[in-house]
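Protein 1 of 2
SEQ + STRUCT:
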Amino acid sequence: MNQCVIFDCYQTLIYKKNLERITQNFSHKILKRKISIECIKYGYNIVYDRYKFKHPHFQTQEKLNNFYIEYNKELYKIIGISISSNEALQLNKLLKKTIWACYSEVQLTLNNLKKRKISMGLIANWTETLNEVLQKVNLGHYFDFVHSSHDLKIDKPNPKIFFKALNNFIKKFDKIYYVGDDYELDIVPSNKAGLIPILIDRNDQYPSSVDCIRIKTLTDLIKIIK
């Protein structure tokens, strides 16, 4: 059987290392407030959900800065703290220095699929930096194709992003899987596009009865894709 596995990127394959710790240190040193890592994680989860349909497309640095000022102020509002625009921008400058890292099981899983000659690709809501980031975490060489929403001019959850990315390529495979961490952004649109969606749910965010294949770790793909 000719199969292809396509991945989302952020929080599916990679994450920002020490994101919460940097935010905690900023809170302590600049805001003079002690905040637990658990509280900060909660804040990031909520603010991500509120902004995930607002994938940024900005023509100027000023508009980009304004987006992250709003984002960081909302983050702290969720935590219960009011911060100024200058403080929000200062935090953003610190967060730009965070290092991208792979989840521990990613390379093991991709190596297994590659050795079995299963075609792999990546389709993600991302800026023009996607390929650069993949090279930094040593993942770029695994994929037969990489498409960002920036290049395609379409964002998930619009299912047209998959049609545009795959085009006639989709006819070459008996099965095409799409692996992502977000039900609304990844599972719903990939299903509408005729792909087989797989939800990676490392933190038990979704119920076990969710209407798609649900996995706890990427290594589960090794058993599913035979």
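Protein 2 of 2
SEQ + STRUCT:
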Amino acid sequence: MNKDAEKEFEAFLLRFMGFIRAHIGKYNIQRYGLDPDDIAQEVRIKIWKLLESEKNVVNYSSYIKKIVNSSVIDQIRKLRRQEEIFLREVQNHVSDREDPYKPEYLRAAMMKEMIGRAVEGLIASRRNVVKLYLLNMGIEEISRYYGWSVHKTRNLLYRGLADLRETMRKTELDHENE
């Protein structure tokens, strides 16, 4: 880039920047969430390319008006494409959500209910430990919570889980026989 081209570019911008800003302002692009400075930057780039190409332009103000118009339209189209992509992603996310009437969801809900009933049927001390374990608490955390030794907590948990497994087996056999 030579110094003459830079000086010509700076002089051109100095001469037409007020016109450019006024023309951008008439579109009130802030209502779309666009920044007028971004549009002005796009216009500067296009003007730089125009001057660099040494294209013979007769009426600069008319040409600048076209550049501003195309830059605003390009930015609005880009924004709309992004909004369409976002809306499409939201729609995909909504359609991918679990349908409460899908067989997998119903099976999981029934399993959760069966486990809940089976846990409620355990002895109180085992039931409390198993509930906390099913809530992702570790043996050490449960023992600290109740103030018990780790050995007592582990013993209650293992016995409670064994009772739970046995209850679940009986429940499955009952459902298979129906």
